[in-house]
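Design request, tokens follow.
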């Protein structure tokens, strides 16, 4: 009898142990060093550090302001701190946040967290990202409450938004395309969440599914151009790796993406992204519609712009606008100059800037600001000139557009 009781006790203990093991595999992946390394790479590919780190702050501790037309959101602490971070989150809960846009308590997350793209991330990749974030230093830093206006501060209303604009589901390969193309699509449409900047948004902030045709970034007054590219694949790879290419340089939010994310990707993944982007249509270049202006008015503005260009711009960008490859971008035929929305060219003229410092281009050449020496009319004239000289045929720029851009904060 005692022997039977002992056998039953052993069986019960083994059964409980099995349940605990299975539960631990569900709630917390059995991370290996390989998982952590892979997760670090994927977290970089997703550019998580950019939103979850304030300038000068410790990585992944949150608190960065994310302005929206509906109020200001603040990113969360995603270090493994148990009280203020995600230290009490399970792998299942982390996956649910990425895949379904829900917090640990099941409440809806605001779509400023790009779960509309992250839903395409595979469970295997989600678990690797979780393993990496669980391995980084814990930092106790309470999350800052959001400052959303009524009624957008009522998360329950997101249920209706999700019905209209959110479709849950992991990435499904297009079997008509190559493995390389599908890898690029997975990175662009999923983990890279490129549509969150490079797509047009509707009245409620939603983007069209798989749209990377260009759009204005809300509240930042930067225009993210169409990702459909006429560039050669090698030039796209170089731009994403170094922040410069023969005809382009990364400024504004894209410089941050290159610095924190794309320069760290493998050449194979960068080429896959380029292959995918090369297959997409580009409707942003050679934009001729815009501000209405009579022929005499445009001629007068072009003359004024030519004088400003000669005095302020020609030494670097050359008299004929050809620039110096990988140092001073060309302005003749430059897609960044010819976009429908001229705000980027206006802001660079006003504020100057530098491409990101990357391993492949550690000391980039920059452009000085001219906001303090040029009037709104002079900026409008010189941007109109570079958009209309040397065979460029883009719309003129108004002083109203310049004044609007001048008042926008740099960050």
């Amino acid at each position: 009898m005692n022997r039977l009781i002992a056998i039953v006790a052993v069986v019960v203990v083994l059964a409980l142990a099995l349940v605990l093991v299975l539960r631990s595999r569900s709630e917390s992946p059995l991370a290996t060093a390989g998982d952590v390394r892979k997760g670090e790479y994927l977290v970089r590919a997703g550019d998580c550090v950019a939103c979850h780190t304030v300038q000068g702050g410790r990585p992944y501790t949150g608190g960065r302001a994310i302005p929206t037309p509906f109020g200001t959101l603040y990113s969360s602490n995603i270090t493994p701190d148990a009280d203020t971070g995600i230290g009490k989150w399970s792998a299942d809960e982390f996956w649910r946040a990425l895949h379904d846009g829900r917090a640990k308590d099941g409440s809806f997350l605001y779509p400023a967290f790009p779960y509309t793209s992250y839903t395409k991330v595979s469970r295997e990749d989600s678990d690797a990202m979780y393993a990496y974030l669980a391995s980084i230093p814990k930092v106790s830093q309470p999350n800052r409450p959001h400052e959303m206006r009524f009624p957008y501060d009522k998360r329950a209303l997101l249920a209706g938004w999700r019905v209209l604009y959110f479709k849950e589901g992991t990435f499904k390969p297009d079997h008509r395309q190559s493995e390389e193309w599908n890898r690029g699509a997975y990175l662009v449409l999923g983990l890279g969440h490129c549509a969150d900047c490079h797509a047009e948004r509707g009245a409620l902030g939603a983007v069209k599914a798989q749209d990377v045709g260009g759009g204005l970034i809300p509240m930042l007054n930067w225009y993210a151009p169409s990702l459909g590219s006429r560039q050669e694949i090698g030039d796209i790879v170089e731009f994403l790796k170094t922040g410069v290419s023969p005809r382009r340089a990364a400024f504004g939010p894209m410089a941050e993406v290159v610095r924190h994310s794309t320069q760290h990707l493998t050449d194979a993944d960068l080429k896959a992204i380029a292959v995918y982007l090369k297959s997409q249509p580009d409707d942003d270049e050679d934009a001729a519609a815009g501000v209405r202006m009579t022929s005499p008015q445009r001629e007068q503005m072009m003359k004024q712009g030519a004088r400003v260009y000669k005095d302020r711009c020609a030494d670097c960008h050359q008299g004929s606008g050809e620039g110096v490859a990988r140092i001073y971008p060309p302005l003749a035929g430059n897609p960044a100059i010819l976009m429908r929305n001229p705000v980027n060219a206006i802001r660079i003229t006003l504020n100057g800037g530098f491409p990101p410092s990357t391993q492949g281009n550690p000391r980039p050449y920059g452009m000085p600001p001219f906001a303090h020496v040029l009037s709104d009319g002079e900026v409008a004239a010189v941007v109109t000139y570079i958009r209309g000289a040397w065979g460029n045929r883009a719309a003129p720029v108004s002083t109203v557009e310049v004044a609007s851009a001048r008042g926008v904060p740099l960050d």
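Comment from the thread starter after seeing the answer: thanks! Residues 2-27 form the longest helix (26 residues).
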